[in-house]
């Protein structure tokens, strides 16, 4: 999945077009509330998306909608407009990817050190006992 996301990122980086979306918020009597957005491609297609937003009250859902979808831009490939990214995710992808790589390498190093500590400590203890006996 990571590799697929990286290939998709590179494809959008080379061929992507950034466009603004039209978004609307629909308040339901019972949460969750619904958001909808759409954008038009250069070929005249209109892409629609919708989803649930906010499991709390309408005020919290509206605040979240205004933060995330009010001024939303997307980047898409004209050949495959259904595969698009939110533009802020696209901008932050390299930074997030490098941070995840660093954290995974750090955790991996600590785990390897801990796992190797047990046999190395055992071997060191055996040799020190033999030297004390001699």
Automatic annotation (TrEMBL):
The chain crosses the membrane at residues 101-124. Keywords: Membrane, Transmembrane, Transmembrane helix. It comes from the Bacteria. This is DUF3592 domain-containing protein. It comes from Rhodocytophaga rosea.
